[in-house]
Amino acid sequence: xxxxxxxxxxxxxxxxxxxxxxxxxxxxxxxxxxxxxxxxxxxxxxxxxxxxxxxxxxxxxxxxxxxxxxxxxxxxxxxxxxxxxxxxxxxxxxxxxxxxxxxxxxxxxxxxxxxxxxxxxxxxxxxxxxxxxxxxxxxxxxxxxxxxxxxxxxxxxxxxxxxxxxxxxxxxxxxxxxxxxxxxxxxxxxxxxxxxxxxxxxxxxxxxxxxxxxxxxxxxxxxxxxxxxxxxxxxxxxxxxxxxxxxxxxxxxxxxxxxxxxxxxxxxxxxxxxxxxxxxxxxxxxxxxxxxxxxxxxxxxxxxxxxxxxxxxxxxxxxxxxxxxxxxxxxxxxxxxxxxxxxxxxxxxxxxxxxxxxxxxxxxxxxxxxxxxxxxxxxxxxxxxxxxxxxxxxxxxxxxxxxxxxxxxxxxxxxxxxxxxxxxxxxxxxxx
Length: 432
Prior knowledge:
Blueprint: E1 8-14, H1 21-35, E2 40-47, H2 53-63, E3 67-72, H3 77-87, E4 92-96, H4 107-115, E5 121-125, E6 132-134, H5 137-154, E7 165-169, H6 170-176, H7 187-197, E8 202-206, E9 208-210, H8 219-239, H9 260-287, H10 292-315, H11 324-350, H12 358-384, E10 388-389, E11 395-396, H13 398-404
Parallel strand pairs: 1-2, 1-4, 2-3, 5-8, 6-9
Antiparallel strand pairs: 4-7, 5-7, 10-11
Helix pairs in contact: 1-2, 5-8, 9-10, 9-12, 10-11, 11-12
């Protein structure tokens, strides 16, 4: 007897869905039997149901040979997907919402590029040209604002993080799932951001999508949880505590890729705003007891040291004391450029026939500081915290040096330890 290779495992996460489960699964099985050209299995993932969902799932598994039911006691869509995907033997791992809001005709275009090897991850998108979507204005606004935040704060390039219609190749899932932590709705976004930073190719499918008016999703609670997830993930990536391996080909630029830049700009901007506020407060306090130039020098010097230390840890993810003094010296050189710009601006301003007012004085200083900030970011990225050259001639980033430094001489060094150790919310055991 010839064993057929399982090509697609379609997970349907459910929790208290006794009213919709049977009709949706029968409709999905009918579609797979009629025109789907690949071997497929439907996995019903009951995560923490307290109604009759598990009994219905078990009955469907007995009724259809291509359906299996998996029961987990704890709720959480992300927890269910991570558990089942981590143990699945299928070539492509997919999932869809139980309400089948996405038209099933999009399933074949979703998985075909992954089975062919053309792409690594595929998502349905309701926000691309060609999508046909019917949903209320409230959900439409929240979805668009959320994806705009992802683009602005996380440097994301995919168009729709929240559509419940996604698939990923098994090998890539095995590499990325240990890095994920969310157990709920943010799991999708987390996996997509990690996939982009790993250099994976994400294929987008415009879908026909009809809003489920009976959806039990708490929109406000989900939005708040998503924002918290973004903050956690952004901090981890900016600090380097989440280390993502490069999974597709060679990493351009010796390990640095374009996904670093938006996160670094965002972190640098936050640190810069805090530094500017501290600088202005110090300047105004000192200005009452000394000249403008002296107050400017002391205020800039105090905030420059704190700014360099904060950017070293938060923006460029460098920890430990190694090269800390060198970074501060280089940071002070970059500070000198800012000092020259601000001091020069004050000199020009005070060279006039009439002494400037305090508002004009502060406004000129703010403008000069903005110019100095742009120059300082370029210097921080390319020179102060940029790659250094080892004795063997190879370039290595200061971030990687800080990771290597944590390993004792003679110990094996694992470049991406996050993928090897257990994470909070790691895949639990499942029972069918």
